[in-house]
Amino acid sequence: MVTLCFACFSFVGVYAQTAAPADTMAEHAHATAPPSNSLTVTMDGKSTKFSVADIQALPQTTVNVHNEHTKVDESYTGVLLGDLLAKCGLPVDKTTHRKMLRSYLIAEGTDKYWVLYSVTEIEFSEHTDNVIVATSMSGKPLGDDGQLKLIDSGDKKPQRWVRNLTAITVKSAE
For 122-165, how does the pLDDT look when each residue is reduced to its tens digit (9 = 90+)? Predict the structure, then answer.
C-alpha cells in the first residue's frame, strides 16, 4: 500500500514538472481573435454599447508604459476607464466609495481572455495609476490588438492588459 501511494505521488510530481513549462509558454501566446470594434459595458443588469468613435469622442488621456513582454516603452491614448463607467451610471469618485469597495469588474477580449480588477483600482483617491481603454498607440491604430485595448499604467507586466477589448462587466460582491 505504501509503495502504491509513493508511486501516485511520484506520478503527480512528474506531471506537475512536465505541465509547468507549457503553461508558462502559453501565458505569453496570443490566440488569433477577431478585432474588437465596439465595447459593451454591463452594470446593474443594464448594458451600454460604445463604438470606437464614441470612445474617441470622450476626453482622452495618454499613458506611457514599459511593456515587459516586448521590452519596449509604449505610449497609449484612450479614455480613462473611470470616465467610461461614469457614462454608464457609476461615477468613480468618493460619492460611490462604499459601492466601489464591494465591486469588481471583468474585462474580456474577443479571444475570451479576461482579467479582473477591483473597481477601487481605477479611482484616483485610491489608486495613483491610470487604467484606460486605448484606441491608439503612439498616435497610430492598435493593429493586431484590435481597435480597443485595456491598459493599466501601474502594472509591471501587461498581464492584465486586454487586447481586442469587447466587454466590461461590473459586479457587486454583496
Answer: 877 677 899 999 999 999 999 888 999 999 999 888 999 999 99
User: How many angstroms separate the CA atoms of 126 and 166, rounded?
Assistant: 26
**Cβ burial, residue 47 (10 Å; 0-12/13-18/19+):** exposed
The H or E element that residue 88 is part of is: none
Q: Rounded CA gap, 114 and 118, in Å?
A: 14
Distance, in Å, from the CA atom of 75 to the CA atom of 67, rounded to the nearest integer, reads: 10
The answer to whether the CB of 122 falls within 8 A of the CB of 137 is no
pLDDT tens per residue across span 98-109: 778 888 999 999
The torsion angle over the Cα atoms of residues 36, 75, 26 and 120, rounded to 10 degrees, is: -80
At which residue does the C-alpha cell 513549462 appear? 21
> What is the rounded distance in angstroms from the CA atom of residue 53 to the CA atom of residue 158?
25
CA distance 92 to 84: 9
> Alpha carbon of 100 to those of 23, 77, 121, 170: distances in Å?
33, 25, 9, 10
User: Cβ distance 121 to 85 under 8 Å?
Assistant: no
Query: 168, 165, 134: which is closest to 34 by C-alpha?
Result: 165
